[in-house]
Design a protein that fits this description.
The protein is an alpha/beta fold. Helix content is 40%, strand content 18%. The chain has 14 helices and 14 strands.
Length: 393
């Protein structure tokens, strides 16, 4: 993927840092004439288990505009760029010591506020060099004006296609940057559970995910054979239900695509909402990697992502595959949700009230067709079973 962020501002993260890395950054920020502003904080993660340096840097030279993240990483590492450190998760193995660098998608002030913010860390060390410029060369740049328009349009709910028409030059040159900035600032979807009560199983699961520390091995499989018990609603609204945790929600695709989507610093809760069609082809290898807190991304910008072990929950309509070549026995936790009699009665009443007259006229034939197909499928299964029995003889 082409690196195409039209500015010379970067954010960076370094896990398992050493005192030499910290001292080099302090010297680099003071001695390099191209550094207009640099801020870095010694952070430890939400539970104190992931020490890392979190920072941002702004270069006053436009020559850095086209630099790739790998080049900026080497520049920040300085003499430490060739150092390899022991892998804490694999004794005897070593990891290359490098920063994860990305182009800044928000403003420099937002990035600076994020480093060592009080809501994230208490008493972490911070090094700050330079001042955040209010203007560049006495006037606003086209990029800053475009960034402001995109953020305003996203917050107002303007369709992204209309935003592209507003800024055709940036749509041609920096479409990925525009899309990421737009998605970051668009309003969150309304919380479904603000107007609908939680089922008991949803409330119990939300309480567990919010209050309990993730088990280092267990993967939760929520299996609803019948369907329509609120699995997808839970997944889509989980961030509202558990506001104090970072929640990542996705549908299962191939492992390579999913690895590129996983946040670099991981997440507290990882939810996979699996449609019926793909449940026999789940990426179990990817699910196990996420549970281990270590994912290898081989798509776009290849990298390794290490993060704290999250809760992993998979929502399904059939039981997961089982076997030594799939997952270890101790990985499985099968949750089969059900409704209380009161919840079941209320759901049936709600379905009757919400049934549109236009749809209702077709339901009798639809139900008859479903029954015909169920009988047909049962007959096919019996035929296959009989054929296997004859073959075995």
């Amino acid at each position: 993927m082409t690196y195409n962020i039209p500015n010379n501002k970067f954010v960076f993260t370094l896990h398992n840092w050493t005192p030499a890395d910290w001292e080099h950054l302090k010297r680099f920020s003071k001695e390099n004439e191209h550094v207009a502003y640099l801020k870095v904080a010694q952070e430890t993660g939400s539970e104190g288990e992931s020490p890392h340096l979190q920072g941002c840097v702004y270069f006053n030279s436009r020559t850095f505009k086209k630099q790739r993240p790998s080049a900026i990483s080497k520049l920040l590492m300085g003499p430490n760029k060739n150092v390899c450190l022991p892998d804490p998760k694999n004794p005897g193995m070593y990891l290359k010591h490098h920063y994860h660098v990305d182009g800044m998608r928000g403003t420099l002030q937002e990035a600076a506020d994020y480093c060592g913010a009080m809501f994230k860390e208490q008493g972490c060390k911070i090094h700050e060099q330079g001042k955040i410029p209010t203007t560049q060369q006495g006037r606003r740049t086209d990029h800053e004006e475009a960034q402001e328009k995109i953020i305003e349009a996203a917050k107002a709910g303007t369709a992204f296609d209309d935003v592209k028409l507003m800024l055709p030059r940036f749509a041609d040159q920096s479409l990925e940057w525009m899309r990421n900035l737009y998605l970051q600032h668009r309003p969150q979807l309304e919380n479904f559970f603000d107007h609908n009560p939680l089922y008991k199983w949803q409330k119990d699961l939300a309480t567990y995910l919010n209050s309990k520390k993730p088990d280092p091995r267990k993967i939760l499989f929520v299996v609803d054979i019948e369907g329509n018990l609120g699995k997808t609603k839970f997944a889509l609204n989980a961030q509202h239900l558990i506001p104090d945790k970072d929640v990542f929600h996705c549908t299962p695709k191939d492992g390579k695509s999913l690895s590129s989507l996983v946040p670099d610093d991981g997440t507290d809760i990882f939810l996979i909402d699996s449609p019926r069609k793909v449940q026999y082809d789940l990426p179990y290898d990817f699910i196990e990697e996420v549970k281990n807190g270590f994912v290898t991304n081989t798509k776009y910008q290849c990298c390794k992502k290490e993060f704290k072990v999250p809760h992993v929950v998979v929502f399904m309509n059939s039981h997961p595959q089982f076997g030594k070549c799939i997952l270890s026995k101790d990985r499985y936790v099968i949750i089969e949700p059900s409704l209380t009699p009161e919840e079941r009665l209320k759901l049936e009443q709600q379905e009757e009230e919400e049934q549109d007259p236009y749809i209702q006229q077709f339901m009798e034939r639809t139900i008859a067709w479903q029954e015909e197909r169920e009988v047909h499928n049962e007959e096919r299964q019996e035929e296959r079973a009989a054929k296997r029995a004859r073959t075995a003889q």
